[in-house]
Amino acid sequence: MDCAELLKRIKERDMDAYLYLTNVYGLKLYNYLNSRLGDQDLVEEAFQKTLASFYESLTAQESQDPIDAILCTYADQTCGKIAGSDVGTKKKKKKHSAAANIGFAIGIVILSAGILAASWVIIGLLMDMNLIPSADLGYEWFNANIAPWF
Questions:
Q1: Coil, helix or strand for 66?
Q2: What is the domain extent for residue 17?
């Protein structure tokens, strides 16, 4: 389907033409937006808004521009609205919330405790097999107070 026919059918609200547009130009548009914005959430939002504004703003006047040029124009406008004036120059950094930072710290503490406990068990097993010299690392207390519960 050529550009003029596709635009004409889209203007007539032909959903098959709109689906054709998204199938043929969708990946190209998505990659273009990704190169401009870099953040997947923003890219997906811009993709939807670009296609919606393109579809809604078609008027009766004929356009001689190829479809991808028209879509890029709408994509640039959408990027400008979503990301502000720094589009294409910097990728936006995600700001981490305090909850995410606390969650990360808790994860590190749990991981450290797990590594310490695993090391303690492995050292105890190596001492039982006489592969390393015996030393009391709290095993007598553990065997007397905790092990009977298991």
A1: coil
A2: 3-86
Task: Return left, alpha or beta for 13; rule: phi > 0 is left, psi -120 to 50 is alpha, else beta.
Answer: left
In angstroms, rounded to a whole number, what is the distance separating the alpha carbons of residues 131 and 112?
Answer: 25
The pTM score is 0.41
Q: Read out DSSP for 2-55?
A: -HHHHHHHHHTT-HHHHHHHHHHHHHHHHHHHHHHH--HHHHHHHHHHHHHHHH
Q: Tens digits of per-residue pLDDT, 36-86?
A: 877 788 888 888 888 777 777 664 455 555 666 666 666 666 666 665 544
Residue 91 lies in a domain: no
> pLDDT tens, 93-134?
556 666 777 878 888 999 999 999 899 889 888 888 888 888
Q: What is the DSSP letter of 60?
A: S
Query: Does some domain include residue 93?
Result: no
| Cα–Cα distance for residue pair 46/56, rounded to 1 Å | 15
